Amino acid sequence: MQPEVFVDILQEAMFMVILLVSLVIVPSMIVGLIVSIFQAATSINEQTLSFLPRLLVTLAAIIYGGHWGMNKVMDYTIGMFARIPQVVG
């Protein structure tokens, strides 16, 4: 296997991980920021107040984005199986 092939595979894998993690993390982070601003503006210091909205948004992101994420993972996996002759040979 040539080093260029390995670097390409590693780059694609890291991009896939970042893409799939950001699908769940970014909406949760935005909601957490909005709730934190609301808590700072109203002086409510309840630690559990931000938990439920972030949980619901995270579940919604998984529900609505899960199909897209699974399609990306399946395409990546099929591409890796198609590259086996290139890597081995």
From TrEMBL:
The gene is fliQ. Role in flagellar biosynthesis. Coiled coil: none annotated. GO terms for cellular component: bacterial-type flagellum basal body; plasma membrane. Belongs to the FliQ/MopD/SpaQ family. Its main location: membrane. Keywords: Bacterial flagellum, Cell membrane, Cell projection, Cilium, Flagellum, Membrane, Transmembrane, Transmembrane helix. The chain crosses the membrane at residues 13-39, 51-70. It comes from the Bacteria. GO terms for biological process: bacterial-type flagellum assembly; protein secretion. This is Flagellar biosynthetic protein FliQ. InterPro entries: Bac_export_3 (IPR002191), FliQ (IPR006305). The lineage of its organism: Bacteria, Pseudomonadati, Pseudomonadota, Gammaproteobacteria, Alteromonadales. It comes from Catenovulum agarivorans DS-2. It is a multi-pass membrane protein. It is found in: Cell membrane; Bacterial flagellum basal body.
